[in-house]
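Hey, resending since the last one bounced:
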Amino acid sequence: MQLDLGEEKTVAGIAIQPRKDLVTGVQQYVKTYTVSTSHDGTSFTNITGVYNGHQAQTIVDNVFPECVRPRARYVRIYPQSWNSHMSLRCDVLISDLKPPNSAGQQGISVYGLGKRLTIENKNATGKFLSITNIGADDTGASLVLWDNPTDLATQWYIMDIGNGQYNILNAKSLKCVNVSRHRMGYGANVLQWDNPKSPETRFSIKTLNGGAIAIDEAVTIESCYNSGKYINAIFGHKDNGTQLLLMGEVGNWATQWIIRVANDSGTSSRL
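The structure tokens again:
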């Protein structure tokens, strides 16, 4: 498999995810693989080592040591062994970040998904945006609050797609936060869906004073598809399993979120 990063970046590692055959139920995954990189897509250089994949339905990050992180545009992954079938989804980990802003806060990734993040509801302290109890393959299920920030189900990649808009991808399912296409008013459902190019998956994330997205600072998450509506914990509830809806009360704490770098987060990454 070959990936084109669009321009040269510092390649810091690889993340891979398996698949499950929906007919037979058999897990299909890569057990081991090697990696090579290239500046021009023609001449490739091997990165030393054979890297372990997985034994179960989960994402596995392999972060390269600082001393062996090449600058490259093209990345190839060569599976060496696998279970049932040579199936994987992959992600190139990139160590390039925006410099800190004037307040000394580290920016979101210049190019790609950034570090894994948690998104905590300001009204429900200790409860986070999550797909817990939904299932990674359950497309169309409503997102919830849950109190398990160390679980991949409650960790997210925030992908800058330009024009002040972001995709929010779950670290376990790699599906996007999505709003209902069919319900435009208050109370529209907030779902997970496998459609990162769809307008329903685009959000404007700003601080309460209208500033750019920032780590460790309260923000609102406004739907770009359903303008003026914000991701909200339904009616201010604070329990595990509380569903999320789109509402318009931007001053309500249930519509405010705090984004933090997740504990044991991987290096900045790009799909």
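The two ends are 13 Å apart (CA to CA).

Sorry for the duplicate.
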